[in-house]
Amino acid sequence: MDRMFGRPIVTQEQMRMRIRELGRQITMDYAGKDLILVGVLKGAYAFYADLARAIRIPMRVDFLVVASYAGKPKSSGKVKMVTDLTEDIAGLDVLLVEDIVDSGLTAQYLINTLHKRNPKSIKICSLLSKPERREKHVPIDYVGFEIPNKYVVGYGLDYQQKYRNLPYLAVLDTVDDDG
Length: 179
Ligand code: IMP
Ligand code: MG
Fold this sequence. Notes:
The chain is of the alpha/beta class.
């Protein structure tokens, strides 16, 4: 599988170091709070597992599944919650864990939807951000890496549901992702 891609744009080592830093920061910021780490599946699964283990405070874990791309590299402009949380988040400090904030549509939809359930606070931690592609302004509280406007795969991110298991982040050259 590695042969299909050029050099990683984020290596496993860079990923490991950055996630350790994010874990430290979140540990400090959420000390004494009632944290629930909400993973946005499927894309966030790899990042989530590593980030959760870098956070050194007692916390709850939960997941939801959204569909926004329908197997296409370009956003369909619609976000749908396919599977909801199992926990009641009222009164809790919610930290949403995303793979990437691209247009911002997914993040905005999730913030709006979960806000109605009266959490004590709600913030976003995204492994990646493509600032050039933003359509909706959503504050991202924790960002792993800002990347250029290229379609990337690996470390949880897919192209047509494949390549999520690539252990680093690579650019998929064949995809036209300019709009
Ligand atoms: P949004 O445009 O911010 O709503 O991004 C929605 C979703 O698009 C992300 O959670 C990813 O699953 C997917 N996505 C955006 N850019 C990429 C990419 O470069 N590679 C793989 N998935 C992407
Ligand atoms: Mg995806």
